[in-house]
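Entry:
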Amino acid sequence: MVVMVSDESKDTARVNLAAGYRLRTGQHLPVVGFGTWALPEGPECSRAVCDAIRAGYRLIDGAAFYRNERSVGKGIKAALSQGVARSELTITSKVWVDNLGYQSTMDSFFKSLNDLELDYLDLYLIHWPASPNKHAAWQELNLATWKAMVELYEEGYVRAIGVSNFLPHHLENLLSYRVAPMVNQLEVHPGYSQRALVDLCHEHGIVVEGWSPFGRGAVLGDATINAIADAHECTAAQVCLAFCRQLKVIPLPKSAASNRMVSNLDFLDITLSPAEMGQLLALDDIRLGYSGEHPDR
């Protein structure tokens, strides 16, 4: 069962940005995160990460594949120098699919830790699973990777571990391991809710994070979403984030503009009606904004 910490008002919600969803370890994941995909290595990335933390984001989602972890680390360091406590932050990285396997995962983890200039990570994920059409022994490869993840967790190098883009058949042999995945990060937005998979994760106590909550921008011009935004006097982006939240999914928006970072957090004020949620879920029929990235293809 996935437990969400209550937030009774906007002010309370902002105070509790870092205490949204409770993992089975007792650790909390924030109600929203900041994504770093496509932020180019360099000062722009560092500034965006620092600005996001200053705006109130406490979960920073990164990955080795984004090739910007040195700059992400500099942004984190800048925020820490301005008075933010390291214990307030949830810093995430991921092992890329080309580096699956026990030793490659270990090597990838410590490279990310070094590039970020951190002593530990809060969350480490398998970015994409080994899959039947790419790897002959895909189940064994996922399990060997997971063995490394569990050792990193048990030795205290990372506070929580999980997966990303894992479908039920990828999850199956990990669920019975001595430490099961705590998080599954999936593409989730109006038009591609993956609701059945999200519900399955919740049934197993797996917290779901949602990447590309705006469908890579493709959903923001949709008439249905904008009509709902007009009714709530908010932005289409805020509707997308509220949609994720009402599915008990942690959205991971990305923006390099500090004003949009702040504006996006106002989704915490919005409660969509059952009818509005139904309208947004119906967009799944046309796969609005779907990236086309399927873990088995």
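The chain has a mean pLDDT of 94.
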